[in-house]
# Entry
Amino acid sequence: MSFLRHSLSTFATQIVIMGLGIASGIITARVLGPHLKGQAALLTMITQLLYMVGNMGLGSAFSFFIAKEQFTGRQIHSCALVSAFFFGSISIVVFYCTMPFHAVFWEGLSSNLIFYSALLSVLYIYSTYLTRILVGYDRIHSMNIGTIARSFINVLTLIVLLLIWNHGLDGVVISLWLAAVAQIAVFLFALRADIRLSRFWEGNLIRTSLSYGIKSHMLLLINFLNYRIDMLLVKHFTDDAAVGFYSLAVGMAELMWLVPNATVAPLFASVAKSEAADRSLLTLRTIRWSFVFLVVLALGAIFLGRLFIDLLYGSDFLPSYQPFLGLLPGICLFPVFKLLNIDLAARGFPGFGTIASAVSLVINVIFNILLIPQLGPLGAALASSLSYGCMAFISIIFFLKKTSYRFSDLVTIDAEEWVFIYEKGSASLLTIRNYIKLFWKH
# Structure
């Protein structure tokens, strides 16, 4: 299947996930309210934080080795299974051993819910490894089915546990568990030929996976802190309700990454498998049109965002509108960094993005500390936008340095691309016209 068809398939999947994500967000917001929604966001933060710490970046390594056929699928899956439980368990132990240093962020949360949220990170790690293995095989369709299953089960269980049985925060955590299990079940079925355990410790799979993965791991961890540490700082300087407002703004803003996220997996597989000199043309084109799409979407969000919040989440969450606006510049720029880093990682250079993200993280923390006490969640949003812009700028410099492309190649639409746009546009208009004629006849 071509890059375009993979991307369209993933885009359709993202549309479904967006709808299901909005549904789960509405249920959570309307049942829990700002205060408890803030606590739910913090519990989710625990899972995500331990997942980011414990995955060690091995998913990127597994995907790369599958694409390059350096190891067998059984070897890589066996390594993924053991690594998920080993590194996941270590991250949980470290979390509890260091609790005195970060307990302030989790004040007011149930100790049982903290534990189960932490334990869930092991499933998240394993699920991510399986996802990356599927990407390496270029089996994007199977990956999309698993992702939809996860979102569907999440919404279904939220309806039962929150709307019908009114289990509150307990229901949120149980829903996340059941959704993760459903996704893993789909992935294991898709990879059933590789499930049999193999002697992965023979050869150099472990060493090479860690060598490749640790570079990606640092990038992923720093990236996570870049777009989540603001939520912890909002909690530190304000309260749970403010976290609830800000988490809703972040969730709405990140829904706009629909198009860029749809191209990440196909783009990695396409670049990794190619040795052509112009293999990054797809990357540059994807960046251009993703940026255009996001700018148009952001303009619409400026005018409709307040109404959207009021109708779907309720007037109690209208304070989310201002931080949502503050996030929009960064939301438009962040995919530039993400897609360029995917291209460099597929070329075997996963470490460059780490530098860009680390510099931006420092900027992010400094401006969060300066702005949140004065502006609350809006200050966190502005700091994030500044950080994302910095990441995009630095990543462009690294990409141009490691390739033969120029900045003009990033912003200029070439003749071949205009032909492609004309052909696809003409075909789409013809299809629409035929549907109109058919409708008019009936």
In short: Residues 105 and 225 are 14 Å apart (CA to CA). The longest helix spans residues 3-54.
